[in-house]
Amino acid sequence: MPITPDQQAEIDALRAQPTQTLRATAPGIEGHLYKAYEVLDHGFVRVIDYMGDDSAIVQAARVSYGAGTKHVSNDAGLIRYLMRHWHSTPFEMCEIKLHVKLPVFVARQWIRHRTANVNEYSARYSILDREFYIPAPEHLAAQSTVNNQGRGEVLQGEEAERVLRLLRDDAMRSYDHYEQMLSQDGQQGLARELARMNLPANVYTQWYWKTDLHNLFHFLRLRADAHAQYEIRVYAEAIAAIVADWVPLAHAAFEDYRMGGATLSAKALDCIRRMIRGEQVTQETSGMSKGEWREFEGIIR
After folding, report:
1. Which residues constitute the domain of residue 150?
2. Which of 110, 210, 227, 229 is the most exposed place for a label (fewest CB within 10 A)?
3. Total-model pTM
């Protein structure tokens, strides 16, 4: 169960007591406040708080750049200009705080995004729940033969059943031992901070994660990408859907310039210019390595 009865009661109570405020609010995200959106088999994402909206980005930019942006006549145009030219500070005027429940191995990927404030559930003080991420059969894949970081073909038949059985059995066995070590029935019981080291990386943890929009967009660009690991990508996709309602103009610019756009090297641009002039350009005449050329073809084809 992603949400406990106590958590649901807290959510219901918070949503039942709206309060008046003089601060700027974003109607699109107000509807998301406190709600839990299920991710994976036991995880969720929910918005706890936020600050700013599209107008806050525009306000900050016009203060910072003054007359330099007066030729941009509307908010959408200005935000697109800021995104196009890789400005960062105006987007940092917006912040969001999320409550996330996720497997430990996903959290260890996620924490690599260091430009955030994080407070994680502590297994030194509390006992973790018996909840583990077990992949759905369609996400149980072999190692890719072309990508050392990725997955290949989905496992089938007896092999898939064997792997799923091992994952479940190992998770349950480790938790049984965790409980046995903690138990004070006829023994002192091992300290929680030591007993936790026996738990596998697919056990669930929770944290509060607060970041600004500039760094959140960087997170989404990497983790909502099709090449990201599925288990973190689905969290990024859930967050992206919330961001689209929170700052629709900024999100549209982000989708256009970051998710849908491409960064080209000087050599790649030179190849495109040569192609436009009608020249036949190959990897051998491009000045690029085979890997660069393969990526370049993926962009222009």
Report:
1. 134-201
2. 227
3. 0.91
